[in-house]
Fold this sequence. Notes:
By secondary structure, the protein is of the alpha/beta class. Helices cover 42% and strands 23% of the residues. It folds into two domains: 2-76, no CATH class; 80-246, 3-Layer(aba) Sandwich (Rossmann fold), CATH 3.40.50.
Amino acid sequence: MDESNNRKTMNKISYGIDAPKVIRNLFLVGIIFLVLAIFLPAITISKVQIQTAQISFTIALICIIEAALMLLYSLVGKFKHRDRMLKLHEWKGNEMVLDVGTGHGLLMIGAAKRLTTGKSLGIDIWKNSDLSNNTLQQTEQNAVLENVSDKIKILSQDITHTTFRDNYFDVVVSNLCLHNIYNKEGRATACKEIYRILKDNGVAIISDFKHTGDYKKAFESQGMNVEKIGIYFIDTFPPLTIIRAKKIR
C-alpha cells in the first residue's frame, strides 16, 4: 500500500509546502490558545482575577492567520512570485542558469521553459524542514512531467562552496534559501560565490524575507550594480523582497 501511494505521488507534479513544520506549529499553537480562550477565560493569582480570554484569543488568531497565509503562499502565491522573478531578466534562450536551493525545482523548471539551447541547473542540500518531501527524486520527476528534463541538471551542492568554474552562469536565481545559512559570514560567502560563478554582465535575482539588505551590501562590495525590488505584501508571506544584482564587466 505504501509503495503504491509513493508511486502515485511521484506521478504528480508537486512543488511542496514551504516550511511545513513552521506552518504545523503555528496551527497547533493557535488551536491551543483557542482552547485556552474557551476553557480558561480567566486565572486567579493571589485573589486577583485576570481575564485571559481576550489575550489567548488574539494569540490564537494571529498564529492561525499566519499559518493560513504561509499555506496560501505555498499553494498559490509562489507561482506568481516565480514569474515575477523570472520576468526581471530578458531571456534569449541560450542562457546557463543556476537555481540556488532549488527544492522541487520551481525556479529551475520555470527558467528551463524559457530556454532553447540553454541549460538550467538546480542545487540543494535537501532539508525537509525547508520544503515538504524535499528530495532530488521528486524534483527530477517534476522536470519529466513538465517536459523539460532535457534542459535541466540537478546537483547536491552547497552554495557557500560549489564546484562550478568562474564566470559560468548567465543567470543565478534563488528564493527563500539564503536565510537558511544561519550566520552572516556564511551568507556573505554565498553572495561572493554567486558573484564568482556569474559571467560578466550576468545577473543574480535573489528573493527572501529577511537579510536582503545584507545581500545588497555583499553584492555591492563586489562592484555589482544592485537594485532592491519590493516588498510584496499582497501575494507572498512572509512578505518577500527581491535583490537584482548585475555583474559589471
